[in-house]
């Protein structure tokens, strides 16, 4: 498995693109979130819209979903030998988010007699469901109200028989999550949003370090962080955590 961070920045990043990822799983390409910087971050990392096999949307903030419409439309309006040859987009979504996501897409996609389902297929997962991609199992982690009050959101776990990664999504109220319950002896990485200054909807570094046992700190991969990350190099080193960097590919499983 290869994990390519298309970007690692927050909503207002100027230099790091939005915190979106491509995960290469058994020759399939899984896009994690589709923020408004996707039209630039995807080609910068050597990918294009047509290569995407699945898209997971964690929540409806623009840095995670603002580029989805363009992706879906680009894939749909494909032509081969002068004939319309649409590619439908497979979207993985937590069941609570399915209807709001459809409504979000409906505003732009439903015209000229077409429906959202003409453009997309939805893989809807509740907290007990799993979806198989090759030899890997994908499951969602419900984090509703734990990023922002009233906001539906989710993280995920991606597992093989030998190893797994846990992806927090965007979180503030760590103590109320069950993220830690997803971590086991086969977990090789915990992708965790980390703010290095106070933030009302994202966990700070200290909150992250307090939540996870010391034995797991070296497995934490900090993401969705401040643009001036170089100011915190010593703090990161002392914390013994990893830092995800834009377009630096990770091979973990």
How would you describe this structure to a colleague?
The structure is a single chain. By secondary structure, this protein is an alpha/beta fold. It has one domain (2-251): Ribonuclease Z/Hydroxyacylglutathione hydrolase-like (Metallo-beta-lactamase, Chain A). It contains eight helices and 16 strands. The strands form three sheets. A seven-stranded mixed β-sheet has the order 8-7-4-3-2-1-16. The longest helix is centred in the middle third of the chain and has 15 residues, at 95-109. The radius of gyration is 18 Å and the shape is globular. The model has no long low-confidence stretch (mean pLDDT 97).
Q: How would you summarize this macromolecular structure in one to three sentences?
A:
The protein is an alpha/beta fold.
Describe the secondary structure blueprint for this structure.
Layout: E1 2-5, E2 21-25, E3 28-32, H1 38-44, E4 54-56, H2 62-65, H3 68-76, E5 79-80, E6 83-84, E7 89-94, H4 95-109, H5 116-119, E8 120-125, E9 131-133, E10 136-142, E11 154-159, E12 164-167, H6 179-182, E13 187-193, H7 205-211, E14 220-223, H8 233-239, E15 242-243, E16 250-251
Parallel strand pairs: 3-4, 4-7, 7-8, 12-13, 13-14, 14-15
Antiparallel strand pairs: 1-2, 1-16, 2-3, 5-6, 9-10, 10-11, 11-12
